[in-house]
Amino acid sequence: MKQMGSNPRLYWHPSLTLTLFVSKCSLVIPPENGNKMAANQNRNFSKNDPRYWESRVFFPKTKVKGKVYEAKIYSVRIQHSGQRRTLSTGESSKRAGGRKALEFYRYIKANGWEATEAHFFPKEAIRSVSAVTVGDYLACVEANSHLSQQTFKTYATKFRRLVAGVAGISDDKESAKQDYVNGGAEKWRAKIDRTLLSTITPEKTQSWKVSFIRRAGPDPRDLTKAKHTVNSILRNSKSLFSPKVLKFLNDIELPDPLPFDGVELEKEGSMRYHSSFDSKTLFHQAERELFNASVEQEKIVCGNEAIPTTDGSKAFMQRRSDLVAKKHQAFRIFLLALCAGLRRNEIDKLQWTQLDFDRNLILIQETDCFSPKADSSGQVYLDPEIMNLFRKFKKDSSSRFVIEGNEPRPSGYRATKHHKMLISWLREKGVDTQCPIHTLRKEFGSTVCSKAGIFVASRILRHSNISITEKHYLENQNQVTSGFGSLLGAANEEAER
């Protein structure tokens, strides 16, 4: 400290704004006054100090259709030579944003606006600068697009999966992504939603696609599955950026180019359905094991031991009764999938009013809780014997739905436990595909095609165009050969011997 004048008790230090008297008494500064002093000092920081700019960076806000969206990347406003401009720091940390703002300021002072933009925001990249995050964009699409709730949920799930792969977002506990009870899934989504949309560039998306396929390994079957998966993710994600969606988002700042500009789907090769089971045998097994299931015959497995049917306790009788009821409902789902070719959601929401017992047909139409896929409304005829069976089911039913279950929700299935029962049973019988119930629909389509041709099959399956039917659903079940085998003479006799 420096002594002031001739007074030995009076000292001054350059960092202090107060004069301290060193004597028997001491100076005490109340905490609230100390905070005010700190605030005053922050306001007095030089423009060449990053702390000056920390208090001036901010999250920009965008207003779309009356709703305000706040970005998660800091920006700063700088005035120089009579021009005031807003620059994105590209930082999500306030301290880092302050340092970047100081860097902008110094460069502007030394070189001017044009040189600064050319240095920090090259012309080929300046169009990509956008403060919109993935979460901002999805919220805006959900609020303003024509997409249904279920469709949007599917698209958003696929897009978040792609963003996680492109941005390299990983979780130590992979199971946390599926934890919808303890908040793990919500945290995972929030982590992805904070990603800046402009960072998901076409180049990075293409790189992710190639890397995803290469991880499948050399086995051609694994390679084909990987291509199907990556195409599904890309196809659904691209739908969020279709012209029909973008035309309602004129007020939101989007990166240019968009994440999928120029990114093409993979050539998947043949996706035609090939049956792995005999449908007639499966039908007889379903009738015997699902339709004819009874409480007396049913066994409950606890651990590795089956509880005998002679156990008459109320608890076990109730469990057997519940299991039998599930099997009966599973049989109804089985009939509607294999014999009518209905989709899983169509079966789940099907109501008794949609069954015309006089004409032996099912009406696939919009109801109070169901909307068909595009161009999928129509009529499906059933065999009279099967329709008579459903007439009996209706007499025993107290629900307005053909399949017993809960009341419908905005999204998801209402009879999940019955679907799971049938899926488990089908896999036991060798229908070990990713979507066993949909496999029954494909078997139905192939059966109809072998009897009446591809055009009839496409109409009954209610596809938007025949190419979908030809590509995904049909197997040639008619055993057609060249017939040259009958021309064999001695060689055929030798083979028989």
Top keywords for this entry?
497 residues; mainly alpha; 4 domains; three-stranded antiparallel β-sheet; 47% helix; elongated
Summarize the structure.
Helices cover 47% and strands 9% of the residues.
Overview of this structure, please?
Strand 10 (355-356) and strand 11 form a beta hairpin. The strands form five sheets. Strands 1-2-3 form a three-stranded antiparallel sheet, with no helix packed on it. Strands 10-11-12 form a three-stranded antiparallel sheet, with no helix packed on it. The chain has helices at residues 31-43, 50-54, 94-111, 113-120, 123-126, 134-144, 149-167, 184-193, 202-214, 220-239, 243-246, 279-291, 314-338, 344-348, 384-395, 416-428, 436-452, 454-461, 466-473, 490-496, and strands spanning 2-3, 10-12, 20-21, 61-64, 67-70, 75-80, 83-88, 300-302, 305-307, 355-356, 361-364, 378-381. The protein is mostly helical and 497 residues long. Helix 3 (94-111) crosses helix 4 (113-120). It folds into four domains: 1-44, no CATH class; 47-126, no CATH class; 134-246, no CATH class; 279-404 and 414-473, hpI Integrase, Chain A (Orthogonal Bundle). The protein has 20 helices and twelve strands. The N and C termini lie far apart (118 Å).
